[in-house]
Amino acid sequence: MRFDVVTLFPDMLQGLFAEGVVGRALQSDDLTLNCVNPRDFTSDVHRTVDDTRYGGGAGMLMKAPPLAQAVQSLPRRPGSRVIYLSPQGKPLTQHKVRQLAQQEQLILVCGRYEGVDQRFIDHYVDEEISIGDYVISGGELAAGVVIDSVARCIPGVVGQVQSVVEDSFFEGLLDAPHYTRPAQFEGEAVPDVLASGHHEKIEDWREQQALERTWQQRPDLLEECRLGTGQRRLLRDLLEQENL
Length: 244
Ligand SMILES: Nc1nonc1C(=O)NCc1ccc(Cl)cc1
Fold this sequence. Notes:
Layout: E1 2-6, H1 10-16, H2 20-25, E2 32-36, E3 50-51, E4 61-62, H3 64-72, E5 80-91, H4 94-100, E6 105-110, H5 118-124, E7 127-130, H6 140-151, H7 161-165, H8 192-195, H9 199-217, H10 219-224, H11 229-241
Parallel strand pairs: 1-2, 1-6, 5-6, 5-7
Antiparallel strand pairs: 3-4
Helix pairs in contact: 3-5, 9-11
This protein binds 4-amino-N-(4-chlorobenzyl)-1,2,5-oxadiazole-3-carboxamide (4FM).
């Protein structure tokens, strides 16, 4: 997978991935990160990348030509997609992450200021993606979230594939609680079942905890995910316990 990031702040992205498991993977041949700066595609002495809006309105917009030339400067692999990060995009979900991980190349365009000229989006962007319903200062952190979550889905990037499969949202449910040594922490012990060594009971307990936590924190996820018969029974028991 090749990640190309179109950004006015290339050092930000390099900094985000200077260490860590994804950072190390990005040094390898099968996973690369390249940044391209639209400012390098300006022709005026001030290297202008922004301008005021037609029709008025506060703040500045990113101009289309430097963004377009930055994207055009990139070598394109078959199966490459241009993604624009913004609050106007479709929500980034684990399902979308898995879809993106199938591509050969992702070109991530990071906006700054108050937005970009819509004609750049219409002519060059394949899809707009949002990492959440809030506004951050630019698309760079959102691009970092896409790179990290997609890279984790690529075989060989994150060791112990099992830990990736068990990540929250891989089964559509939130994760069960986890515990490690010490056995006692501030007077609280670890749930007995986890010390029982009874793997089937432990799996059932974790399944029940994941359902309970998802039901409490994110009932919306329960509508979407396809529950197995065992999970459905556990959820029914849970709702009965809660007299619901
Ligand atoms: N939420 C989000 N999910 O993806 N990106 C965001 C976000 O807030 N970007 C800020 C942003 C995006 C475009 C421009 Cl021009 C300026 C600022």
